[in-house]
Specification:
With 302 residues, chain A is an alpha/beta fold. Chain A is 34% helix and 25% strand.
Chain lengths: 302, 302
């Protein structure tokens, strides 16, 4: 089933001990769409400037990614520059030039308005809500990512938007800030009162945790000896997670657990190379192989 | 098979948002011995002062814990006082009075010298090595815990001791400091060159990770809504881990994975109440029940 994603497409400048790129296609919606497209067709809604060429758009081509919702506006594409510390565990933002993204008003092509799976990447909560209004029937599954910036500055808007989503996918510190609760189980209970029925907490090198009324499921991060670039890991995780669910059309506990694994698989590939390069060259057959590695990593018999 | 543990028995003063105790029996060897005794007989080597009464010793009684190696010396028992932050994620040490522990020279009763399973809790590396010398035949499995203090101040002694142990059980920051390597997989490779063939990294709220030449195994921490006191969690983990292995007499990959789970089970019980209280009242039947919870927490079918 086709999966709608609304979020940023950007140019990233990245520096890590493993290298440097001055202008690579990035942005949450890019990582998400590429990761998800291994499982299901994706419909992309985002905005780019007139500096975003047909060549830049190649990342979406030859995949099941519909870019009719990719708006081309006069001006420059969202630009982000960041530098990672030697251990990749700290990141300094060197530049955030919103450019055309500052005026982004997501507009869903008519054919997108009946989509049943929706992912709202990290954008202003009022824009996320507006996207949900444009979708005609309540989706089978709507998931949302956000960040501390919106939790702090648009809290009421975010709360209003959360009433209409099923899955909240955020990191540890966002979970704690949104719920005002350090303990993640208690945090989940607060968040369930806000609307979502499932909380997925992305924990970087520690993996991810899913909490719903059926319980808790944990998956570790894939141990890599030489991760090159953490950029987009969370968005690739979200893409693998939602892509798997949209592809299989189920939302049973077993399906959600598999989605957590496929999310982790895609996140682990994303960090292996700079920017979106590893996902760009990823072969479909590498996915089940790595998923089996995750089984080996976690499974035991009592 | 009986399991030898050498380490500290102490009085702890603890403060957390959940309460306060002025003098509770604690110490690494105490948590370890109690946790391990659910799986196998334990032989304890430690030192206490003349303030350590028969009543204090009750924690070891009625369990399979041989205290013939518990030396009673003139003077006061090792005393440690600590306070936890509101979220239990930070700890301030208020007092560390070594007392009789400063003169601890572990002496193994004759009957302990043929034991096949040995755990060297966190004490000076030269004392750990001396214990290994007193054991007549190379143990089937020797494991060691240490801390930043020894890594920094007795590095050569620690390196010498590590040549003679199979399993190193330390936390993230100790792993990084000992190996001078941030990435845990690369850190494990450095550590394997020092002697141990298995590295167990204790990661607090994120669980634990085991690395050996066969690969990596991860187990999450048990999600608890209201942990009361993290004191002794790592030592209880070690007790469950080594106790299980000594009890089953195996060291296959499957056995080590189960040991990781039973370690996590005991660690999770330890933090539920203040000090050693939860372990003191733990029923044997609660252990397999929680181990099954760990299975539910981690298992998936692709």
């Amino acid at each position: 089933m086709s999966l709608l994603v609304v979020g940023s497409v950007a140019f990233d400048a990245l520096e890590s001990p493993y290298g440097k790129v001055d202008r690579a296609v990035g942005g949450a919606a890019t990582y998400f769409a590429v990761a998800a497209s291994f499982f299901t067709p994706v419909s992309l809604v985002a905005i780019v400037g007139d500096d975003f060429t047909s060549r830049d758009e190649e990342i979406f081509r030859g995949r099941h990614i519909d870019t009719d919702g990719l708006e081309h506006a006069a001006g420059k594409t969202f630009f982000w520059a960041g530098r990672y510390s030697e251990n990749l565990n700290e990141r300094v933002t060197l530049a955030t030039d919103l450019n055309v993204f500052a005026e982004f008003k997501p507009r869903l092509p008519e054919k997108y308005r009946k989509l049943k799976y929706v992912f709202l990447a990290n954008i202003a909560p009022e824009l996320q809500r507006d996207v949900l209004h444009q979708v005609k029937v309540r989706p089978k599954l709507a998931a949302l990512d956000t960040m501390n910036y919106w939790i702090e500055r648009s809290n009421a808007e975010l709360r209003e938007t959360l009433k209409h989503v099923d899955i909240l996918m955020i990191n540890d510190s966002e979970t704690r800030e949104l719920s005002n609760e350090h303990n993640l189980l208690r945090a989940a209970k607060h968040i369930f009162k806000m609307g979502p029925t499932t909380l997925v907490v992305k924990r970087g090198e520690y993996g991810a945790m899913m909490v719903d009324k059926r319980g808790v499921f944990c998956v570790p991060a894939f141990p890599l000896e030489e991760p090159h670039d953490p950029t987009g890991a969370g968005d690739s995780f979200a893409g693998g997670f939602m892509g798997y669910l949209a592809g299989c059309g189920e939302k049973s506990d077993a399906a959600l657990r598999r989605a957590m694994v496929y999310g982790s698989v895609l996140g682990s590939f994303a960090v292996e190379k700079f920017g979106v390069e590893r996902l760009r060259h990823l072969k479909r057959s590498e996915i089940p192989a790595r998923a089996r590695h995750f089984a080996k990593l976690t499974q035991f018999k009592l």
